[in-house]
What does this fold into?
Amino acid sequence: MVIKRDAYLNKLIKSRNNGFIKIITGIRRCGKSYLLSVLFSSWLKDNGVNEAHIISINLEDRRNKKLRDPDILLAYIDSRILDDDRYYVMIDEIQLVPEFEDVLNSYLGMHNVDIYVTGSNAKFLSKDVITTFRGRGEEIRVYPFSFKEYLQTTEFSMPLALNTYMLYGGMPQVTLENDEKRKRALLKSLFTNTYIKDIIERYKIRNPEALDEILNILASGIGGLTNPAKLTNTIESVKHEKISRPTMVAYLEYICDSFITERAERFNIKGKRYIDNSYKYYFTDCGLRNARLNFRQIEFSHLMENVIHNELLVRGFSVDIGVVPIQRTDSEGHRTRSNLEVDFVCNEGSRRYYIQSAFRMPDESKLRQEEASLRNIDDSFKKIIILGEETPVLHTESGITILSIYDFLLNENSLEL
It folds into this structure.
Protein backbone atom coordinates (compact mmCIF):
# COMPACT_ATOMS: atom_id res chain seq x y z
CA MET A 1 0.00 0.00 0.00
CA VAL A 2 1.35 3.42 -1.00
CA ILE A 3 0.49 6.07 1.58
CA LYS A 4 0.45 9.55 0.10
CA ARG A 5 2.32 12.14 2.14
CA ASP A 6 1.77 15.05 -0.20
CA ALA A 7 2.50 17.81 2.32
CA TYR A 8 6.06 16.57 2.82
CA LEU A 9 6.55 15.57 -0.80
CA ASN A 10 5.56 19.05 -1.95
CA LYS A 11 8.10 20.59 0.43
CA LEU A 12 10.84 18.45 -1.13
CA ILE A 13 9.69 19.35 -4.63
CA LYS A 14 9.70 23.08 -3.82
CA SER A 15 13.16 22.81 -2.26
CA ARG A 16 14.66 20.94 -5.19
CA ASN A 17 17.88 22.42 -6.59
CA ASN A 18 17.86 25.39 -4.21
CA GLY A 19 21.53 25.05 -3.24
CA PHE A 20 20.76 23.90 0.31
CA ILE A 21 21.26 20.56 2.00
CA LYS A 22 17.80 19.20 2.73
CA ILE A 23 17.78 17.69 6.23
CA ILE A 24 14.84 15.36 6.87
CA THR A 25 14.29 15.21 10.62
CA GLY A 26 11.85 13.40 12.87
CA ILE A 27 11.48 10.53 15.28
CA ARG A 28 12.89 7.22 14.08
CA ARG A 29 10.54 5.04 12.04
CA CYS A 30 8.15 7.88 11.21
CA GLY A 31 8.63 7.48 7.45
CA LYS A 32 11.60 9.69 6.56
CA SER A 33 13.31 7.01 4.45
CA TYR A 34 10.06 6.09 2.68
CA LEU A 35 9.50 9.74 1.85
CA LEU A 36 12.88 9.99 0.13
CA SER A 37 13.51 6.55 -1.35
CA VAL A 38 9.96 5.83 -2.53
CA LEU A 39 7.79 8.93 -2.83
CA PHE A 40 10.36 11.55 -3.84
CA SER A 41 12.41 9.16 -6.00
CA SER A 42 9.27 8.08 -7.84
CA TRP A 43 8.30 11.71 -8.41
CA LEU A 44 11.75 12.47 -9.84
CA LYS A 45 11.62 9.52 -12.22
CA ASP A 46 8.06 10.38 -13.27
CA ASN A 47 9.31 13.86 -14.10
CA GLY A 48 12.14 12.78 -16.37
CA VAL A 49 15.11 12.20 -14.03
CA ASN A 50 17.24 9.28 -15.12
CA GLU A 51 17.37 6.60 -12.42
CA ALA A 52 21.18 6.55 -12.66
CA HIS A 53 21.15 10.17 -11.49
CA ILE A 54 19.44 9.25 -8.23
CA ILE A 55 22.13 8.10 -5.80
CA SER A 56 20.40 6.49 -2.83
CA ILE A 57 22.50 5.21 0.09
CA ASN A 58 21.11 3.49 3.18
CA LEU A 59 23.84 3.57 5.78
CA GLU A 60 21.76 1.54 8.24
CA ASP A 61 22.15 -1.44 5.90
CA ARG A 62 25.18 -3.40 7.12
CA ARG A 63 26.09 -4.18 3.51
CA ASN A 64 26.95 -0.49 3.21
CA LYS A 65 29.09 -0.47 6.35
CA LYS A 66 32.22 0.53 4.43
CA LEU A 67 30.44 3.67 3.26
CA ARG A 68 30.28 4.87 6.88
CA ASP A 69 33.92 5.87 6.44
CA PRO A 70 33.73 9.54 5.32
CA ASP A 71 36.47 9.27 2.70
CA ILE A 72 35.07 6.06 1.21
CA LEU A 73 31.58 7.62 1.11
CA LEU A 74 32.95 10.72 -0.60
CA ALA A 75 34.80 8.61 -3.18
CA TYR A 76 31.73 6.45 -3.83
CA ILE A 77 29.48 9.43 -4.50
CA ASP A 78 32.13 11.01 -6.73
CA SER A 79 32.38 7.76 -8.71
CA ARG A 80 28.65 7.87 -9.45
CA ILE A 81 28.73 11.43 -10.82
CA LEU A 82 29.69 10.92 -14.44
CA ASP A 83 28.51 14.05 -16.26
CA ASP A 84 27.30 17.62 -15.74
CA ASP A 85 23.63 16.75 -15.50
CA ARG A 86 21.82 17.07 -12.17
CA TYR A 87 22.35 14.31 -9.59
CA TYR A 88 20.17 13.73 -6.54
CA VAL A 89 22.09 12.28 -3.61
CA MET A 90 19.95 10.76 -0.82
CA ILE A 91 21.75 9.47 2.26
CA ASP A 92 19.83 7.67 4.98
CA GLU A 93 21.15 7.67 8.57
CA ILE A 94 23.97 10.10 7.83
CA GLN A 95 24.86 10.33 11.53
CA LEU A 96 26.57 6.94 11.21
CA VAL A 97 29.38 8.69 9.31
CA PRO A 98 32.03 10.42 11.42
CA GLU A 99 32.67 13.99 10.20
CA PHE A 100 29.59 13.79 8.01
CA GLU A 101 29.46 17.60 8.04
CA ASP A 102 32.63 17.77 5.94
CA VAL A 103 31.29 15.19 3.49
CA LEU A 104 28.07 17.13 2.91
CA ASN A 105 29.71 20.52 2.78
CA SER A 106 32.02 19.15 0.06
CA TYR A 107 29.04 19.11 -2.32
CA LEU A 108 27.64 22.54 -1.57
CA GLY A 109 29.83 24.13 -4.24
CA MET A 110 28.89 21.65 -6.98
CA HIS A 111 26.22 23.06 -9.29
CA ASN A 112 24.89 19.67 -10.39
CA VAL A 113 24.48 17.93 -7.02
CA ASP A 114 21.37 18.18 -4.87
CA ILE A 115 21.77 16.66 -1.38
CA TYR A 116 19.09 15.10 0.85
CA VAL A 117 19.87 13.39 4.16
CA THR A 118 18.03 11.80 7.05
CA GLY A 119 19.32 10.97 10.50
CA SER A 120 17.90 9.69 13.73
CA ASN A 121 20.09 10.17 16.75
CA ALA A 122 19.53 12.92 19.26
CA LYS A 123 22.62 14.93 18.31
CA PHE A 124 21.86 14.99 14.61
CA LEU A 125 18.21 15.79 15.11
CA SER A 126 18.75 18.45 17.76
CA LYS A 127 17.41 21.95 17.28
CA ASP A 128 20.93 23.19 16.45
CA VAL A 129 21.41 20.93 13.43
CA ILE A 130 20.98 23.65 10.82
CA THR A 131 23.99 25.62 12.11
CA THR A 132 26.17 22.60 11.40
CA PHE A 133 25.92 23.36 7.69
CA ARG A 134 26.97 27.00 7.90
CA GLY A 135 23.56 28.40 7.09
CA ARG A 136 23.21 26.17 4.04
CA GLY A 137 20.89 23.57 5.51
CA GLU A 138 17.10 23.45 5.26
CA GLU A 139 15.18 21.32 7.74
CA ILE A 140 12.03 19.46 6.72
CA ARG A 141 10.40 17.99 9.80
CA VAL A 142 8.48 14.75 9.33
CA TYR A 143 5.91 13.42 11.81
CA PRO A 144 4.12 10.09 12.13
CA PHE A 145 0.92 9.81 10.11
CA SER A 146 -1.58 12.56 10.75
CA PHE A 147 -5.19 11.46 11.20
CA LYS A 148 -5.91 12.46 7.60
CA GLU A 149 -3.02 10.28 6.39
CA TYR A 150 -4.07 7.48 8.72
CA LEU A 151 -7.52 7.36 7.10
CA GLN A 152 -5.86 6.11 3.90
CA THR A 153 -5.14 2.86 5.75
CA THR A 154 -8.54 2.02 7.25
CA GLU A 155 -12.22 1.61 6.40
CA PHE A 156 -13.37 2.23 9.97
CA SER A 157 -16.17 4.69 10.65
CA MET A 158 -14.89 8.14 11.55
CA PRO A 159 -15.41 7.88 15.35
CA LEU A 160 -13.87 4.38 15.50
CA ALA A 161 -10.98 5.49 13.29
CA LEU A 162 -10.22 8.45 15.57
CA ASN A 163 -10.38 6.33 18.73
CA THR A 164 -8.09 3.73 17.14
CA TYR A 165 -5.71 6.47 16.00
CA MET A 166 -5.58 7.93 19.51
CA LEU A 167 -4.94 4.45 20.91
CA TYR A 168 -2.26 3.17 18.51
CA GLY A 169 -0.98 6.38 16.95
CA GLY A 170 0.38 6.93 13.47
CA MET A 171 3.77 5.20 13.25
CA PRO A 172 3.70 3.73 9.71
CA GLN A 173 4.80 0.20 10.59
CA VAL A 174 2.26 0.02 13.40
CA THR A 175 -0.56 1.53 11.34
CA LEU A 176 -0.13 -1.01 8.55
CA GLU A 177 -0.21 -3.93 10.99
CA ASN A 178 -3.73 -5.37 11.34
CA ASP A 179 -3.26 -7.53 14.42
CA GLU A 180 -3.77 -5.56 17.64
CA LYS A 181 -1.35 -7.70 19.65
CA ARG A 182 1.31 -7.07 17.04
CA LYS A 183 0.58 -3.33 17.13
CA ARG A 184 1.15 -3.25 20.88
CA ALA A 185 4.29 -5.36 20.65
CA LEU A 186 5.73 -3.15 17.89
CA LEU A 187 5.10 0.03 19.86
CA LYS A 188 6.69 -1.38 23.02
CA SER A 189 9.68 -2.63 21.04
CA LEU A 190 10.16 0.73 19.34
CA PHE A 191 10.20 2.50 22.68
CA THR A 192 12.56 0.10 24.45
CA ASN A 193 14.84 -1.15 21.70
CA THR A 194 15.04 1.95 19.53
CA TYR A 195 14.39 5.24 21.29
CA ILE A 196 15.57 4.55 24.82
CA LYS A 197 18.53 2.53 23.56
CA ASP A 198 19.55 5.43 21.29
CA ILE A 199 19.51 7.91 24.17
CA ILE A 200 21.38 5.62 26.57
CA GLU A 201 24.10 4.82 24.03
CA ARG A 202 24.48 8.32 22.64
CA TYR A 203 24.70 10.08 26.01
CA LYS A 204 26.19 7.22 28.03
CA ILE A 205 23.32 7.43 30.52
CA ARG A 206 24.47 6.16 33.92
CA ASN A 207 21.01 6.03 35.46
CA PRO A 208 18.65 4.45 32.90
CA GLU A 209 16.14 3.69 35.65
CA ALA A 210 15.68 7.42 36.24
CA LEU A 211 15.24 7.97 32.50
CA ASP A 212 12.57 5.27 32.47
CA GLU A 213 10.77 6.85 35.39
CA ILE A 214 10.82 10.32 33.81
CA LEU A 215 9.23 8.89 30.67
CA ASN A 216 6.57 7.15 32.76
CA ILE A 217 5.73 10.38 34.57
CA LEU A 218 5.55 12.38 31.33
CA ALA A 219 3.33 9.70 29.76
CA SER A 220 0.99 9.74 32.74
CA GLY A 221 0.78 13.50 32.77
CA ILE A 222 0.13 14.62 29.19
CA GLY A 223 -1.74 17.90 29.34
CA GLY A 224 -0.50 18.59 32.86
CA LEU A 225 1.98 21.23 33.97
CA THR A 226 5.33 20.10 35.31
CA ASN A 227 8.94 21.26 35.69
CA PRO A 228 12.32 19.72 36.56
CA ALA A 229 11.94 20.42 40.28
CA LYS A 230 8.52 18.78 40.42
CA LEU A 231 9.75 15.74 38.49
CA THR A 232 12.76 15.44 40.77
CA ASN A 233 10.55 15.53 43.86
CA THR A 234 8.20 12.93 42.38
CA ILE A 235 11.01 10.47 41.69
CA GLU A 236 12.50 11.00 45.14
CA SER A 237 9.16 10.52 46.90
CA VAL A 238 7.88 7.59 44.84
CA LYS A 239 11.07 5.74 43.94
CA HIS A 240 13.21 6.99 46.83
CA GLU A 241 15.99 7.78 44.36
CA LYS A 242 18.11 10.91 44.29
CA ILE A 243 18.49 12.75 41.01
CA SER A 244 20.08 16.17 40.68
CA ARG A 245 18.31 19.03 38.96
CA PRO A 246 21.02 19.37 36.23
CA THR A 247 20.66 15.65 35.47
CA MET A 248 16.89 16.00 35.29
CA VAL A 249 17.17 18.97 32.90
CA ALA A 250 19.65 17.04 30.73
CA TYR A 251 17.43 13.94 30.56
CA LEU A 252 14.43 16.04 29.54
CA GLU A 253 16.48 17.65 26.78
CA TYR A 254 17.61 14.24 25.50
CA ILE A 255 14.00 13.04 25.38
CA CYS A 256 12.84 16.13 23.48
CA ASP A 257 15.84 16.21 21.13
CA SER A 258 15.05 12.62 20.17
CA PHE A 259 11.52 13.79 19.28
CA ILE A 260 9.85 11.37 21.67
CA THR A 261 8.10 14.35 23.26
CA GLU A 262 7.57 18.02 22.48
CA ARG A 263 7.73 20.69 25.17
CA ALA A 264 5.16 23.50 25.17
CA GLU A 265 6.06 26.65 27.10
CA ARG A 266 3.67 28.86 29.04
CA PHE A 267 2.94 32.30 27.60
CA ASN A 268 1.33 35.17 29.52
CA ILE A 269 -1.09 36.49 26.90
CA LYS A 270 -1.77 39.84 28.58
CA GLY A 271 1.82 40.37 29.70
CA LYS A 272 3.17 39.16 26.35
CA ARG A 273 6.03 37.21 27.90
CA TYR A 274 7.00 33.62 28.59
CA ILE A 275 6.71 32.09 32.05
CA ASP A 276 9.66 29.78 32.50
CA ASN A 277 8.78 27.80 35.61
CA SER A 278 6.42 25.13 34.20
CA TYR A 279 5.85 23.32 30.91
CA LYS A 280 3.64 20.74 29.28
CA TYR A 281 5.01 17.72 27.45
CA TYR A 282 3.14 16.04 24.61
CA PHE A 283 4.13 12.80 22.91
CA THR A 284 4.99 12.88 19.22
CA ASP A 285 2.87 9.75 18.82
CA CYS A 286 -0.03 8.76 21.07
CA GLY A 287 0.58 5.07 20.44
CA LEU A 288 4.08 5.37 21.88
CA ARG A 289 2.69 7.17 24.91
CA ASN A 290 0.11 4.45 25.49
CA ALA A 291 2.66 1.68 24.99
CA ARG A 292 4.86 3.32 27.60
CA LEU A 293 2.03 2.85 30.12
CA ASN A 294 1.21 -0.67 28.89
CA PHE A 295 -2.05 0.71 27.45
CA ARG A 296 -3.37 1.75 30.83
CA GLN A 297 -4.65 5.28 31.53
CA ILE A 298 -6.43 5.58 28.17
CA GLU A 299 -8.11 8.94 28.72
CA PHE A 300 -9.43 10.09 25.37
CA SER A 301 -9.88 13.69 26.52
CA HIS A 302 -6.13 13.98 27.15
CA LEU A 303 -5.24 12.00 24.04
CA MET A 304 -7.42 14.31 21.92
CA GLU A 305 -5.53 17.28 23.32
CA ASN A 306 -2.26 15.57 22.36
CA VAL A 307 -3.56 14.90 18.83
CA ILE A 308 -4.60 18.55 18.41
CA HIS A 309 -1.17 19.70 19.58
CA ASN A 310 0.57 17.43 17.06
CA GLU A 311 -1.69 18.48 14.19
CA LEU A 312 -0.88 22.13 14.87
CA LEU A 313 2.85 21.34 14.67
CA VAL A 314 2.35 19.44 11.41
CA ARG A 315 0.68 22.57 9.98
CA GLY A 316 3.74 24.64 10.85
CA PHE A 317 2.53 26.49 13.93
CA SER A 318 4.63 27.18 16.97
CA VAL A 319 2.51 26.11 19.92
CA ASP A 320 2.51 27.51 23.46
CA ILE A 321 0.27 27.17 26.50
CA GLY A 322 -1.65 30.37 27.20
CA VAL A 323 -2.02 32.00 30.62
CA VAL A 324 -4.65 34.71 31.14
CA PRO A 325 -4.25 36.63 34.45
CA ILE A 326 -7.55 37.87 35.87
CA GLN A 327 -8.70 39.79 38.95
CA ARG A 328 -11.89 39.08 40.83
CA THR A 329 -13.62 41.14 43.54
CA ASP A 330 -15.68 39.32 46.14
CA SER A 331 -18.81 40.59 47.91
CA GLU A 332 -16.69 42.31 50.56
CA GLY A 333 -14.61 44.17 48.01
CA HIS A 334 -11.50 42.01 48.35
CA ARG A 335 -9.55 41.49 45.16
CA THR A 336 -7.98 38.16 44.26
CA ARG A 337 -5.76 37.26 41.35
CA SER A 338 -5.79 33.99 39.47
CA ASN A 339 -4.82 32.55 36.12
CA LEU A 340 -7.01 30.98 33.48
CA GLU A 341 -5.44 28.63 30.96
CA VAL A 342 -5.74 28.50 27.19
CA ASP A 343 -4.81 25.06 25.93
CA PHE A 344 -2.93 26.32 22.87
CA VAL A 345 -1.63 29.64 21.59
CA CYS A 346 -0.70 28.99 17.95
CA ASN A 347 1.49 31.32 15.91
CA GLU A 348 2.60 31.18 12.31
CA GLY A 349 3.88 34.41 10.81
CA SER A 350 1.25 37.09 11.44
CA ARG A 351 -1.44 34.50 12.23
CA ARG A 352 -2.46 33.61 15.75
CA TYR A 353 -5.23 31.40 17.12
CA TYR A 354 -6.33 30.63 20.65
CA ILE A 355 -7.62 27.07 20.97
CA GLN A 356 -9.38 25.11 23.69
CA SER A 357 -9.75 21.33 23.53
CA ALA A 358 -13.10 20.10 24.89
CA PHE A 359 -13.83 16.39 24.63
CA ARG A 360 -17.49 16.91 25.55
CA MET A 361 -19.72 19.95 26.27
CA PRO A 362 -23.02 18.43 27.41
CA ASP A 363 -24.57 21.63 28.79
CA GLU A 364 -24.35 25.42 28.99
CA SER A 365 -22.25 25.41 32.16
CA LYS A 366 -19.53 23.34 30.47
CA LEU A 367 -19.58 25.73 27.50
CA ARG A 368 -19.14 28.70 29.86
CA GLN A 369 -16.27 26.91 31.57
CA GLU A 370 -14.47 26.30 28.29
CA GLU A 371 -15.15 29.86 27.09
CA ALA A 372 -13.93 31.55 30.28
CA SER A 373 -10.26 31.97 29.41
CA LEU A 374 -11.02 32.89 25.79
CA ARG A 375 -13.54 35.57 26.78
CA ASN A 376 -10.88 37.22 28.97
CA ILE A 377 -8.49 37.75 26.06
CA ASP A 378 -8.89 41.29 24.79
CA ASP A 379 -7.18 41.09 21.41
CA SER A 380 -8.79 40.39 18.03
CA PHE A 381 -7.20 37.06 17.15
CA LYS A 382 -9.56 34.16 16.50
CA LYS A 383 -10.70 32.05 19.44
CA ILE A 384 -11.74 28.43 18.88
CA ILE A 385 -13.10 25.51 20.89
CA ILE A 386 -12.45 22.11 19.28
CA LEU A 387 -15.13 19.64 20.34
CA GLY A 388 -14.51 15.90 20.42
CA GLU A 389 -17.72 14.97 18.61
CA GLU A 390 -19.57 15.85 15.43
CA THR A 391 -21.07 19.32 15.33
CA PRO A 392 -21.74 21.96 12.69
CA VAL A 393 -19.46 24.96 12.88
CA LEU A 394 -20.98 27.29 15.48
CA HIS A 395 -20.24 30.85 16.57
CA THR A 396 -21.18 31.85 20.10
CA GLU A 397 -22.39 35.26 21.28
CA SER A 398 -18.87 35.83 22.61
CA GLY A 399 -17.47 35.51 19.08
CA ILE A 400 -15.93 32.10 19.76
CA THR A 401 -15.98 29.41 17.06
CA ILE A 402 -16.94 25.84 18.00
CA LEU A 403 -15.45 23.30 15.64
CA SER A 404 -15.67 19.51 15.45
CA ILE A 405 -12.46 17.54 15.92
CA TYR A 406 -13.18 15.86 12.57
CA ASP A 407 -13.48 19.17 10.72
CA PHE A 408 -10.28 20.37 12.39
CA LEU A 409 -8.21 17.29 11.52
CA LEU A 410 -9.47 16.77 7.97
CA ASN A 411 -9.65 20.33 6.66
CA GLU A 412 -6.34 22.18 6.36
CA ASN A 413 -8.22 25.48 6.41
CA SER A 414 -10.43 24.51 9.33
CA LEU A 415 -9.18 27.29 11.62
CA GLU A 416 -10.64 29.80 9.17
CA LEU A 417 -14.15 28.34 9.21
Notes: DSSP finds 15 helices and 13 strands in the chain. The mean pLDDT is 92. Residues 180-203 form the longest helix (24 residues). The two ends are 33 Å apart (CA to CA).
